[in-house]
Design a protein that fits this description.
The chain has nine helices and 16 strands. It is α/β, with parallel strands linked by helices. Helix 3 packs parallel to helix 5 and helix 4 crosses helix 7.
Length: 334
């Protein structure tokens, strides 16, 4: 592709008149750059490495990047993620791919049980999506849970109308796990709460219609409903070894769904809600609310009584803080 066409597709400005007119590949890792490549990035150190490896062009949204070699192309865009989205849409126009929308909970559950070779799952990382989609073969199924993003890169995406022809029958359930039969097979202690079992049934039926392989035993808790067993000191314990459970969810909508679920299925429980202080108005309908400025405030839960603490936060941040909290306290004893 010529740099003039690249500039139009990415809403970028060509800052110079390069000796070279086109590029071969688009690369994000400077150490993987080869002669003829376009390097995309903002870090001056990485750009220097890309130049040393004979990059033909640099695309950046960093206005402070200096032109170090006037023979290659230097392009400046308002936003790299937006530019990659525009470039990806152009590339996908003539591709025979199958884009499908599933809500985030369904997509997360599906991602656990299918092979990555069977289905590509879009993330919130524009660079990662670009790398995954730019080289995939035709007829690949691509699942996304962001309708706006799907509309931007592939407007012909499908919202499947899934007819249930294989019934999933629950035989036993707890708050966090379910036993059931499906297609004459029995599955025990699957990490899907009864709350989401209808979504799992729809996923399985969809995969069956596409003749795609899956393994139900690989079901795991999703980031938006992830119970963590802890003791009074907030030390993470094996599931079932403590009566204190932290339920992590980043979605405000899922939090409301969980609240209704626990109110119905565990009316006996003392439920505490731990939410960001700047979102207090959004959760005014809840009782027993504790707010936090930063998620490090989670240590306050040691002083509070609860059976379940529903925490509106990023799962990975919470887990990291719990681990670091316990390490620091152990070190302080010495």
């Amino acid at each position: 592709m010529t740099f003039e066409n690249l500039a139009k597709l990415t809403n970028a400005k060509l800052l110079n008149k390069p000796f070279i007119s086109s590029y071969e590949r688009i690369i994000f890792d400077p150490l993987k750059v080869k002669r003829g490549d376009l390097f995309v990035g903002n870090d001056p150190k990485e750009i220097k490495i890309a130049l040393e490896r004979d990059a033909y062009a640099i695309l950046s949204d960093n206005k402070k990047v200096n032109i170090l070699d006037d023979e290659i192309a230097w392009l400046q865009c308002p936003n790299i993620d937006d530019s990659l989205t525009g470039l990806l849409r152009y590339d996908l126009m003539n591709r025979k791919l199958h884009f499908v929308y599933f809500d985030k909970i369904s997509a997360d559950m599906m991602q656990h049980i299918v092979s990555k070779e069977e289905i590509i799952f879009l993330s919130q990382d524009a660079k990662q999506n670009f790398q995954n989609l730019y080289t995939i073969s035709d007829h690949t199924i691509v699942v996304g849970s962001d309708k706006k993003y799907l509309q931007n890169i592939y407007p012909e995406y499908e919202i499947p109308d899934i007819a249930i022809y294989q019934k999933l029958n629950i035989t036993k359930s707890t708050l966090f796990q379910t036993n059931f039969t499906y297609r004459e097979s029995y599955y025990e202690n699957i990490k899907v709460p009864k709350l989401f079992i209808n979504k799992l049934e729809s996923i399985l039926n969809y995969l069956d219609t596409k003749l795609l392989y899956y393994d139900i035993h690989k079901c795991d808790y999703i980031p938006d409903f992830n119970p963590i067993c802890v003791n009074k000191q907030l030390e993470i314990k094996a599931f079932g070894t403590s009566s204190l459970i932290l339920i992590i969810t980043e979605s405000s909508q899922t939090l409301k769904t969980i609240q209704k679920y626990l109110k119905k299925e565990a009316s006996w429980a003392n439920i505490l809600y731990f939410i960001p202080k700047n979102q207090l108005k959004e959760y005014s309908f809840l009782d027993n609310i504790q707010t936090y400025k930063t998620i490090t405030d989670i240590k306050r839960l040691k002083e509070l009584e609860f059976n379940f603490a529903i925490i509106n936060a990023d799962l990975h941040k919470v887990v990291d803080i719990l681990k670091n909290l316990n390490v620091k306290e152990q070190l302080s004893l010495f």
